Structures are given as structure tokens and as C-alpha cells.
Amino acid sequence: MKKVLVTGGTGLVGKALEAVIKEQSPADEQWYFAGSKDADLTNLAATQALFAREQPTHVIHLAAMVGGLFHNMNNNLDFLRNNLLINDNVLQTAHEQGCVKVVSCLSTCIFPDKTSYPIDETMVHNGPPHPSNYGYSYAKRLIDVQNHAYHDKYGRLYTSVIPCNIFGPHDNYKPEVSHVIPGMINRMHQLVTEKLEVPESEKVFTVFGSGKPLRQFVYSLDLAELMIWVLRNYESVEPIILSADEAQEVTIFEVAQAIAKAFNFKGKLVCDTSKADGQYKKTASNAKLRSLLPDYAFTDFETAIETSVKWYKENYDQARK
């Protein structure tokens, strides 16, 4: 019997994993989704107590201090220190307690700022990350270094996945920490529900920045299915990019259009070019994934946005905002 511990199990990806596992109901696996109430993973003793209680054989490590562009820019030291502590505590405790496999979650934003595209798994350490989020990026990169070190010293199969921008139900909609899609969903909902003296067609939704940067997005339910596949079938310490195909890349303005459509918003979309754009593009190659899973069908972007907006409206009172 596999006992799978998910750290950060109450967040966006954790909730998606829980939904997929509930649907699959595997007979040979027990899953436990740990949230911040279960343990402060920056504290070694608390991390050890969680592992001692749950006795996992496998770990999906999602827990991290995360935030959007503007939150990262102001808090690089905190992102660096807290994530270093969390990652070292989880990986070392997993090793000490005999966990046979750990799958940690990295991010495409950790790649070098100056690079050629598309980026692939071999390029993680090829130069400094974007200066806006270097604290988070270096802490995440060190998971890959540590995975190799556990493999070299102890033969451990501790590996990592690198998703592109994730969105879906149970996202974090708090304006000061949210990523682009939940941030827009929250602001669009406020605009649509505001009782203004102007007709709907004259309402204006502001897109932060030029709207031109390109992004790949992955729907949280798709990512959950792929992470479960990695846990069960991917037998390498080398990271693997879990990303939709390059052809599915969209501009930030197209994201705003999809969200406007999901809300049936009839007003105008306007770009505020005084706001920062971040990186222009971060195109990632999923060639390694496609070589192993050629037929996986990603959820259509507009459909996934519709589902995410529907969840937000139906769960507005409980959403993190």
C-alpha cells in the first residue's frame, strides 16, 4: 500500500489532486493532504512530527511561499529563506523516514532570464533568473540540486516537475499575492457586480501592462493528472516540464478576453502600460512529456477559464481573496 503525503495540500494544486484522486479512487494508495494547519514546514520538528504521524512512502511536495510579480519584487529575502527551509526540511525528513519517492513542484519562472526559447529541462541552471523573483527562483532551483545529491549519495528517486502558469478552482485571489488569472477574475467580478450609474457597455476593465506578454497556462486539474502519472510512472531524478503545447500560448490580453467572455462582460478592455509587464515570454518545451505521453489531451483554455470563473462565482464566500 502506497501512502502519499501531499504538502501544500490545501492550495490550488493540492485541491486539484484531491479531486482527481477522489474520482480515480485507487485501491492501492492512501492519500493525505496536509495544509499549513497540519505543520509549519519552516520548522524541522513540526515537519518531522507530520511525517512520523502520517508515515508516507511517497511525497508530492507542493508547499512553498508563493506570490505574484509585485509581491515577489518586494520580498526576495523572505521568499529565499522560507522556501530554503521548507524544501530542506521536507526532503531531509523524507529521506530519514525512508520515503521511496518525492515529487517536488518547481516553476517555469525559475529559468534564466536571458535564454533562448523554447526552454527545456536542461537549461534550469544556465544563468541568473529574472531579477524580480530571484529569491523564490534560487530556492526552487536548489530542489533540483538536492534531488541529484540524494540520488548520488543514497540512490533516492527524488524528482521534480516544472509546470507553466497554473490556474483553476481554489486559486489565491488576494490582490497583493495573486497571479495574473485569479487576479483578473477577482477584479472582473468586482467590476461586473458593482452598482455603477453607467451602463454595462461603458464599464472599463484595466489590463495591467501592455497585454502583449505571452504565457503558457496549465489547468490545475490537468496538472494534477500529470503529477499523479509522474508519481506512478516517471523514474528519473531529472526534472520534467508539465506544460501545455507551445501552440497553446496566449497573450495576457487574450487571457483578459477569455475572462471577459466567461463573465459575459460587455464593457471595454484597456491596457495600462504604466504597469510592469514582467518577462515578455517564457515558452517552455514539453517535448520530454510528449515523448512519454504523446496522446494526453489538455483541457481547452477557454473551457478551463469558464470552469474557473464558475467555481469562483459559486464559492465566492470561501475563496481566498
TrEMBL record:
Q: Which GO molecular function terms does the record list?
A: GDP-L-fucose synthase activity; isomerase activity
In terms of domain of life, where is this protein from?
Eukaryota
Q: What is its EC number?
A: 1.1.1.271
Pfam families listed in its UniProt record: Epimerase
Keywords, sorted A to Z: Isomerase, NADP, Oxidoreductase
> Where is each NAD-dependent epimerase/dehydratase domain found?
4-238
Gene3D superfamilies for the chain = NAD(P)-binding Rossmann-like Domain, UDP-galactose 4-epimerase, domain 1
In terms of InterPro entries, this protein maps to: Epimerase_deHydtase (IPR001509), GDP_fucose/colitose_synth (IPR028614), NAD(P)-bd_dom_sf (IPR036291)
The cross-references to SUPFAM superfamilies, in alphabetical order and at most eight, read: NAD(P)-binding Rossmann-fold domains
Q: Which GO terms describe its biological process?
A: 'de novo' GDP-L-fucose biosynthetic process
User: In which pathway does this enzyme or protein participate?
Assistant: Nucleotide-sugar biosynthesis; GDP-L-fucose biosynthesis via de novo pathway; GDP-L-fucose from GDP-alpha-D-mannose: step 2/2
Q: Report the function annotation for this chain.
A: Catalyzes the two-step NADP-dependent conversion of GDP-4-dehydro-6-deoxy-D-mannose to GDP-fucose, involving an epimerase and a reductase reaction.
Q: Which family does it belong to?
A: Belongs to the NAD(P)-dependent epimerase/dehydratase family. Fucose synthase subfamily.
The entry's protein name is GDP-L-fucose synthase
Could you tell me which species this protein originates from? Drosophila erecta (Fruit fly)
